[in-house]
Amino acid sequence: MGMIETLRSVLRFGPLELDPTTRRLARAADVDDLRRLARRRLPRGVFDYIDGGAEDERSLAANCAAFGRTVFAPRVLRDVGTVDPTTTILGRPAPLPLVLAPTGFTRAAHPDGELAVARAAARAGIPYALSTLATRSIEEVAAASADALGDPLGPPGRLWFQVYVWRDRGLVREMIERAAAAGYEALCVTVDTAVLGRRERDVRRGFTLPPRIGPATLLDGALHPAWTWRFVRSEPIRFANVVGRDVGDGAEAVDLAGYINTQFDPSLSWADLEWMRSVWDGPLVVKGIQHVDDARLAADAGLDAVVLSNHGGRQLDRSPAPLDLVAPVVDAVGDRIEVICDGGIRRGADLVVARARGARAAMVGRAYLYGLAAAGEAGVDHVLGLLDAGVRRTLALTGCRDLTEVGPDLLGRDADGAPAER
Fold it and tell me: How far is it, in rounded angstroms, from Cα 279 to Cα 163?
């Protein structure tokens, strides 16, 4: 009788969850769990395209390691019954110090691609930067964002348009004008792709965009039937913003390095940013700054924000970890320009670290792609929820009631014993 009573007191059966996506996400405690799910669900070539970096992937590893070696100097007894993670980004309120980074060929992760990301970002109030090499068009993404806010005919959520500069400046102007007409709030010019970095995982697998399913990949496709079935049933993947133009829209599978090296303009200079200012009335952001002097030049040019970024470790290997640049850049530019840190963010605590170093906000790219690959739109929602909860928890545990209390004094000595960057 005693054993029965004991069992009765400890056995608990929760409600049976029939939805496989909900079950999957219930077990995903962090972004690394979603990465593991994405790896299982995607063909290896697609996963490596999302996950990989340039050459020896030193910069890819350094981006995350920079956050990993940073420690807090928490305070206690500070009345953190209520914490407020809100801030402003480009002068507008934001619920978190977070921007969703532009990622190309997002439909390789899931057929909904950029539409799913835009809807999740709109519901969360987070800015989302759409890539020039998106697989959904400027207009489609704006419509999905507006629909997620409950008014399909209304304005979209906070959308930025990321610009790669084609040799054809007329095409660039056309896309900028389309973004303005669709209600995008900011232009984000990527400046670290004079040529494409050597992404050796892609080289080894012969990866193309769109992915080819042929003799070399047939077995990989068979081992990932859910992805393959969705892929072959979906409409063809294209570079949606240049469909029908003579720059190539992905109707034929392309080697990304060859495509970028022939279509993008390596002569891009500060003069081109002046030209973009002349054709764009909104905030202008430059992404790919990796040197204090270039950040200072951006501030001198009157730009609105710089994104300290090494392209997620996908361009120049051995480039500096963006987090390590934040403090010296902020010291150099002061409050003349907003500073955004991009690369290595996996937790809400990382957002707090970036803020403590002096960044206005941080960008994430791979994190939401892992969520998208693992569980579609719900996976992106899950990532945003994890980051939001992580920021709130970190604020409370470090004794901060809001982000105005987050500064250099919040950081202790780095895990290697060196003083934290101030």
Answer: 13
Helix or strand holding residue 142 (H, E): helix 138-148
Q: Determine contact, residues 351/362, Cβ cutoff 8 Å.
A: yes
Treating both helix axes as pointing N-terminal to C-terminal, what angle do 138-148 and 113-124 enclose, rounded to 10 degrees? 40
Q: Taking the CB of residue 404, how many other CB atoms lie within 10 A of it?
A: 9
Task: Render 266-292 in DSSP notation, one character per residue.
Answer: TT--HHHHHHHHHH--S-EEEEEE-SH
253: left (phi over 0), alpha (psi -120 to 50) or beta: beta
CATH of the domain at 280: 3.20.20.70
Q: Is residue 411 part of a domain?
A: no
d(CA 228, CA 371): 18
Find the distance separating the first CA and the last CA of the chain, reported in whole Å: 64
Measured CA to CA, the distance from residue 294 to residue 384 in angstroms comes to 31
Q: Are 103 and 135 in contact (CB under 8 A)?
A: no
**CA atoms within 13 Å, Cβ hemisphere of 198:** 7
Sign of CA dihedral 47, 53, 57, 59: negative
How many domains does one find in the chain? 1
Residues taking part in catalysis: 311
- Give domain status of residue 371, yes or no: yes
Distance CA 321, CA 312 (A): 9
Structure tokens belonging to residue 233:
């049933």
Parallel, antiparallel, or unpaired for β 361-364 and 338-342?
A: parallel
Per the structure, the complete domain to which residue 164 belongs is given by 22-205+219-404
Query: Is the Cβ–Cβ distance between 377 and 384 less than 8 Å?
Result: no
List average pLDDT for each run of 10 residues in the chain, which is 422 residues long: 69 74 94 97 94 97 96 97 98 98 94 97 98 96 98 95 89 95 98 92 83 64 79 84 71 70 85 93 98 98 98 97 98 98 98 98 98 98 98 98 97 64 48
Answer yes or no: is 123 within a domain.
yes
Query: Is the entire prediction scored with pTM above 0.85?
Result: yes
What are the structure tokens assigned to 266, written together? 């390596």
At 405, is the secondary structure helix, strand, or coil?
A: helix
Supply 129's token pair: 């930067």
Which residue shows structure tokens 């895990």?
A: 415
Alpha helices by DSSP H, 152-192: 169-181
In a domain, 327, yes or no: yes
What's residue 249's pLDDT?
59
Instruction: Give residue 39's Cα distance to chain centre.
Output: 18
